[in-house]
Each structure stands twice: as structure tokens, then as C-alpha cells.
Amino acid sequence: xxxxxxxxxxxxxxxxxxxxxxxxxxxxxxxxxxxxxxxxxxxxxxxxxxxxxxxxxxxxxxxxxxxxxxxxxxxxxxxxxxxxxxxxxxxxxxxxxxxxxxxxxxxxxxxxxxxxxxxxxxxxxxxxxxxxxxxxxxxxxxxxxxxxxxxxxxxxxxxxxxxxxxxxxxxxxxxxxxxxxxxxxxxxxxxxxxxxxxxxxxxxxxxxxxxxxxxxxxxxxxxxxxxxxxxxxxxxxxxxxxxxxxxxxxxxxxxxxxxxxxxxxxxxxxxxxxxxxxxxxxxxxxxxxxxxxxxxxxxxxxxxxxxxxxxxxxxxxxxxxxxxxxxxxxxxxxx
Length: 335
Hints:
The protein is an all-alpha fold. It has helices at about 1-25, 50-60, 65-70, 75-105, 115-140, 150-170, 185-210, 240-245, 245-275, 280-300, 305-335. Helix 1 (about 1-25) runs antiparallel to helix 4 (about 75-105), helix 1 runs antiparallel to helix 11 (about 305-335) and helix 7 runs antiparallel to helix 9 (about 245-275). Interacts with CtaB.
């Protein structure tokens, strides 16, 4: 099963690459530069001046150009076009990287039926992720000047689920026996941690979708207070959770604090109960990455969201979720 494991880890790494390219696409405001979805012919970029001018003319018809980017020249447009085209290209290539080895492994009878069907389900999830991407882009083509933060959150969260599933299956196929004692408490708290990380990734997507990181760039205070005013300025109140940039950033910070406290508690509890031997060796690694992620998030905010730090912050969130699901997979292997 070693070739299958390598393939699955490679797919997970490629999903992470797509997330990084997607983050750059978002941060350069490139996501609406291609106004149509052509799954096959869209592989090729414009190849001559006429095709470039046709793409640029299509972009000129959407609100982002007329309201924000009417200053753009064709050369400026080519820059943002590249990132959206590249993002779509690597996403398409993920499908090829999945289906070709999958077919080969089936032919070689390396995949038992109990594994083949779940893996095919992941392929379907990957295709659904592509459809979600276009659904997200389409939200910014008629009335909005950027994509809907709701659809962005759905797109990024689905990517995190695909990444986590690939890591889980790959880790579950690892040979050998995992040592350690696993209780219901260990499994339950690890699952709660993973769920909180997925929620945080979704919350981060709302921050990105509203450009909420561009405001309130102080820490630990926010708008001069620990709990700022105006958190529920919108009516009805639920809209503040998803549409009020102040509230959305406050929620993202709050979830981060809860994760830090929860991981700290888990490490303290494990230290008291016998240390970090065997399967529980994952916990100190998770704790270290959590602290790094918090520091990266604060630096990203204080430095006005530079692309490098912001993309690193997003990628590290996925890596942290990957560590958590590996911990869960290894605990299942102990049983």
C-alpha cells in the first residue's frame, strides 16, 4: 500500500498548493478576471491579441471593473487574469492526478473495494469543489464588486474537508502498530479540536471575504477595547456574524483564543496523565503549530495583511488541521 499512501499524501499536498494559489488570487483581487467557466477550453489562456481583448472586454462588463478597476489597462488585466487562470489550471490538474493513478491502482488490484469506493467519493468531492468555485465566482459578476463571503467560506471549507479526508485515509493505511492508551476522552477532545479548526478556517474565509483584516489592525485591543462596541450594529442581529467586518474579525480572534486555551488544556492534561509517548506525541507538535499560527495571524494583522504572511497563515491553518486528523487516525489505529 506504500504507493497508494504516497499518492494520497501527494494529492493532499497538491490541495494545499491550490489553497495557496487561491489565497494569492484572492489577495490580488484576481478572482473575477475570468467571467466564464469553460472546463475544457479554459485550460488554454488567450493566445493572441484578439483573444486577450475579448477577455478584457468581458471583464469590463462586470461591476468590479466599472466601479473599482476602470483605470486598468490590458497589461494590468493580464496580471490578474494570470492568477485566476493558474488557480483554475492547478485545480483541473488535481483531477488528473487523482483519476489516472486511481485507475492504475484499480487495474493493479491495489485498492480493495472497501477503499476504492470511499476514494471515488473523494474524487466526486473534488469535482464538487470545482463547481463550488464557479458558484463563488458567479456571485461577483452581476451586482457585487467581489465574491460573496458566504460562497467563499463554503469553497474554502470544502477544500479543508477534502484535504483532511486525504490525510486521514493516507494515515490510516500506514503499516505497523501505534502504541499508547486511547480513551473516549482523548478521541472526543481530538474531534472537538478538529471541528473547531474547521470552523476557524470558515471564519477566516469570512474575514477574507469582507476584507475584515484591513480594519482594526491592533492587538490585543480591537478598536481600543477588549470587546469593541458595534458588534451588533446591524439588524437583524444574525447578519453581524457574517456581514459586519468588526464582528467577523472579533469572532475569528475569539475562536483563536479558545483553540489556544483548549490545546493548552489538552497538553496539560496529557502531561499530568503520563506524558507524550506513543500516539499522544502529536499533541506537543499541535501545540507548537497553534502558537506559530497565532503569531502569524497577529503579524498578518499588524502589518496590514501582506500577501506572503496572509497566505502562510491560511496554509498553516490547513497544516494544523492535517496534524489533528493524523492524530485522530493514529488513535483509531491503536484501537
